[in-house]
Amino acid sequence: MQFDIITLFPDFFTSPLASGLLGRALEKGIAKVNFINPRDFAPDKHRRVDDEPYGGGVGMLLKPEPIFAAVESLPVLPRREIILMTPQGEPLNQPILWDLAAHYDQLVLVCGHYEGVDERICQHLVTREISLGDFVLTCGEIPALTILNGVIRLLPGTVGKEASLKEESFEAGLLDYPQYTRPPTFRGWEVPGVLRSGNHESIAHWRYQQQLKRTRERRPDLWEKWQESKDS
């Protein structure tokens, strides 16, 4: 999969993309990441990419010319999504990550800055707007890195045991169950006996009950959606 990141700060991604699963996935060619700096497409000699908003207001906006030019400089793959990372977008969740991993060959991620972007970028360039949640960050690079991480780990060959991807939080609409490792006793806290019993049927039942309990207690919103899905 091809990732094209429209960013004023490409160095932000250097360490994360050189480490761990992401680094190995890029080395193996599972994904390719390309960085495009809008300043290289600014129409003036000062390489200015921002300006004051019409009508007044606090802060600056990213201008449309450099963003459009940066995106239009890219080759177009058959299945492409142009995503703006913005608090006004749809909240990111696991189904969105699966959709992006399964149905697209090219993701163009536009990283916002300052107080936002010219609305014409939203209306006439990007095809999707995504948010990490109901809060504001200093830059769009953080959510863009989240998209990179979340999608690349779902691509075939990135995770050693791909079956584990189906057993994580949110995959079945429920939070994940508690997990333990050695030693069996730590500071007086015991690993639940059922997990050491060797009875796989009992373990599966315990884990499922823990998922229900944890989701009901910690995420009532998910619990309600899960119940609705079971009733439908």
Write up this protein.
The protein is of the alpha/beta class and 232 residues long. The protein folds into two domains: 2-152, SPOUT methyltransferase, trefoil knot domain (Alpha/beta knot); 168-231, Trp Operon Repressor, Chain A. It is built from seven helices and nine strands, in the order βαβββαβαβαβαββαα. A five-stranded parallel β-sheet has the order 2-1-6-5-7, with helices on both faces. Helix 6 (200-218) packs across helix 7. It is elongated. It starts with a strand and ends with a helix.
Quick description:
The protein has 232 residues and is an alpha/beta fold. Helix content is 33%, strand content 17%.
Q: What is the subunit organization of this protein?
A: single chain
Helix content estimate: 25-40%
CATH fold-level label of the largest domain = Alpha/beta knot
* CATH homologous superfamily placement of the largest domain: SPOUT methyltransferase, trefoil knot domain
User: Mean pLDDT, as a whole number?
Assistant: 92
> Which word captures the global form?
elongated
Helix run count:
7
Give the number of domains. 2
Separation, N- and C-terminal Cα atoms: 35 Å
Low-confidence runs: none
CATH architecture of the largest domain: 3-Layer(aba) Sandwich
**Biggest β-sheet: count, sense, barrel?**
5 strands, parallel
* SSE run: EHEEEHEHEHEHEEHH
